[in-house]
UniProtKB/TrEMBL annotation:
SUPFAM superfamilies: EscU C-terminal domain-like (SSF160544). InterPro entries: T3SS_substrate_exporter (IPR006135), T3SS_substrate_exporter_C (IPR029025). Keywords: Bacterial flagellum protein export, Protein transport, Transport. Required for formation of the rod structure in the basal body of the flagellar apparatus. Together with FliI and FliH, may constitute the export apparatus of flagellin. Belongs to the type III secretion exporter family. This is Flagellar biosynthetic protein FlhB. It comes from Alteromonas arenosi. Gene3D superfamilies: secretion proteins EscU (3.40.1690.10).
Length: 103
């Protein structure tokens, strides 16, 4: 018999001010996680599912910035979400094959 995993949701917000790192703005488990995900989807927030990342982020407190060892992975997720939303730098002329960045 397999153990059912409890749903987990952690919300991050990235401030574009110089020197700041993304911080935990919401977190919850079970029913609260479902509500966080639902509200995020209603507001057009992209959802990324990663059990190991969410387990680690779940250890952080609300308002806490992510630790330096996660900068690279979170930066990649933020950059990819921008591309999916059609937000690319003006000087970026080469489209990504297979990605329709028109929103």
């Amino acid at each position: 018999m397999t153990k059912k995993k409890t749903k987990r949701a952690i919300g991050l917000k990235y401030s574009e001010k110089q020197g700041s790192a993304p911080e935990v703005t919401a977190k919850g488990f079970g029913d609260l996680a479902e509500e966080i995900i639902s509200v995020a989807q209603q507001h057009g927030v992209l959802i990324h599912e990663d059990q190991h990342l969410s387990e680690f982020l779940g250890t952080l407190d609300l308002g806490q910035e992510i630790p330096e060892q996660l900068y690279y992975v979170i930066a990649e997720l933020i950059a990819f979400s921008y591309v999916l939303q059609g937000k690319t730098p003006e000087n970026w002329h080469t489209p990504i094959p297979g990605v329709n960045a028109k929103v």
